[in-house]
Design goal:
The chain folds into 2 domains: about 170 residues, Quinone Oxidoreductase, Chain A, domain 1; about 150 residues, NAD(P)-binding Rossmann-like Domain (Rossmann fold, 3-Layer(aba) Sandwich). By secondary structure, the protein is of the alpha/beta class. It contains 9 helices and 18 strands. Strands 3, 5, 6, 9, 10, 17 and 18 form a 7-stranded mixed β-sheet that branches. A 6-stranded parallel β-sheet has the order 13-12-11-14-15-16, with helices on both faces. A 3-stranded antiparallel β-sheet has the order 2-1-4, with no helix packed on it.
Length: about 350
């Protein structure tokens, strides 16, 4: 390849800031590999969990990160049929159409540097063909990276896993990137009864302006149970509960307060070692509880559907709060996300 090196943010030690270093790109592209120059990348909570090794010791250090991005195809390897040089693409962690390649082989200071089938915290990335979806030029470059994870996950949770219906009453825990998208897609899909719970009082106005009927501030499990208990009658309990924060108390509330035949979808994951306490009898009587894997999203299909919502005006690209950071300020963006900011950090590589 003509481009030999690039700039990348490397996870060297769990729980520590990323190191921004020059790395060596693979010498050639193999079958079904694509070289993408990143324009923007999102940072989501899953990346914080990966940095902190919340699911257990990281066996792949040092390695590259990032799984939602937007960029331009620079060149393609053998057998690639899905995209061509010059195409603009969304990068996503869920596989879609196209064949899966081998993972790329980067080097850093002469040593191997691990990476998966997609990474987006590097200015140039070698990506598997089935981890990109071509998109038209002209959409907001701050919005497009979220199609790689937050937005497609939210749409998939509603349509594939919760099997949402207009007469459902939805309880949403956590109004971050995924929770916000769940709220807005619920309204687009015709749901009229939506309750939102979040730890940040300042999100109340945003939630109510974007479709929520009720907003509860979460301070403790006992207080939230009391407030929600007063809000719901036996006949108005949520038929769908979607938990995005991974907090044990929130998961237990979703289970305890939802209706007998409700569908409870867990998007967030508790820290390794934390246990959820549940009385299982309701599961025998019609209640269901399941963990989401990216909403079982099909990125090619779902990205097209979401962009069509934007095109016809039912979804506003600007309705997802973002803050742009130059790529070199990635650790500042990560710190802000840890501290509970109300926006989605977006890295811009041209700055």
């Amino acid at each position: 390849m003509d481009i030999k090196t690039t700039e990348a943010a490397i996870l060297v030690e769990s729980g520590k800031p990323l190191k921004i270093e020059k790395i060596d790109l693979p010498e050639i592209l193999y079958e079904n590999q694509i070289l993408v120059e990143l324009i923007t990348s999102g940072i989501c909570g899953a990346q914080i969990n990966e940095i902190d090794a919340t699911k257990g010791p990281d066996k792949f250090l040092p390695h590259l990160l990032g799984h939602e991005g937007y960029g331009e195809v620079i060149c393609v390897g053998p057998q690639v049929k899905k995209v061509s040089q010059g195409d603009h693409v969304v990068l996503h962690w869920r596989p879609s159409s196209g064949k899966q390649s081998n993972v790329p082989f980067y080097r850093w200071n002469g040593n191997a540097l691990n990476a998966g089938w997609v990474t987006t915290f590097n200015r140039h990335a070698v990506v598997s063909e089935n981890r990109v979806t071509r998109v038209p030029v002209g959409y907001n470059k701050k919005f497009l990276p979220m199609l790689g994870c937050a937005l497609t996950t939210a749409l998939g949770v509603l349509k594939n896993e919760a099997r949402i219906k207009p007469n459902d009453h939805i309880l949403i825990f956590g109004l971050g990137g995924v929770g916000n998208a769940v709220l807005q897609f619920s309204k687009i899909l015709g749901v009229n009864k939506i309750t939102v719970v979040d730890i940040d009082e300042k999100k109340r106005d945003f939630a109510l302006e974007n479709g929520a009927d009720s907003f509860i501030v979460y301070k403790s499990k006992s207080e939230a149970l009391q407030k929600l208990g007063k809000l719901f009658s036996q006949s108005t309990k949520p038929s769908v509960a979607i938990e995005t924060s991974g907090q044990v108390g929130s998961i237990e509330i979703c289970y305890e307060l939802s209706a007998d035949n409700s569908r409870i979808i867990l998007v967030g994951v508790p820290v390794l070692g934390e246990k959820v306490s549940l009385y299982t009898l309701p599961l025998h009587l019609g209640k269901s509880l399941s963990g989401s894997k990216g909403g079982s999203s099909k990125p090619d299909k779902d990205i097209t559907e979401i962009l069509n919502m934007v095109r016809i005006g039912s979804l506003d690209e600007k309705s997802f709060p973002t803050q742009v950071y130059p790529f070199i300020n990635i650790n500042e963006a990560i710190a802000d996300l840890r501290n509970g900011v109300r926006f989605r950090p977006i890295l811009e590589f041209s700055k």
